[in-house]
Amino acid sequence: MNSSEKIEWSAPEYEDKKRNVDWFWALGVIVIAVSITSIIYGNYFFAILIIISGILLGFFAVKKPETVFYELNKKGLKIKTRLFPFENIKAFWVQTSPKQVLFIKSERLFMPIISVPIENNFGEEIRSIMLAHNVTEEEMKENPSEKIMDKLGF
Q1: Pairing relation of β-strands 101-106 and 89-95?
Q2: Full-model pTM
């Protein structure tokens, strides 16, 4: 990769899901039922926590995702303004189906695996750049909790 070569792309922060009115009704019923149960058992703090969580969940459900800009350059992978240098990337994997995703295993303690949506034509090019910078290729998959949250409509 020569010094002027870089790949840039953008993608939504997360997949925007259309939620119908029933989803919000279900959220409201669950929040109210758990809150009332908590109050009956004298756990007022938990009831307040559930109500606040339900309100925030509803707010984030209607919020539109931001567009995130990605750049793979000679220094590493840049996500928004944060750079992940190649020497800090432990491993990577380019998933090709059902959708193209770049998985990065970083040195972060909290959420060390980062998933980055990629455009269809960049998968092989990203793979070759990562291998050229001696980043280990290691098969990774979406976290099972993400699949569960996806099924629940989050």
Answers
A1: antiparallel
A2: 0.68
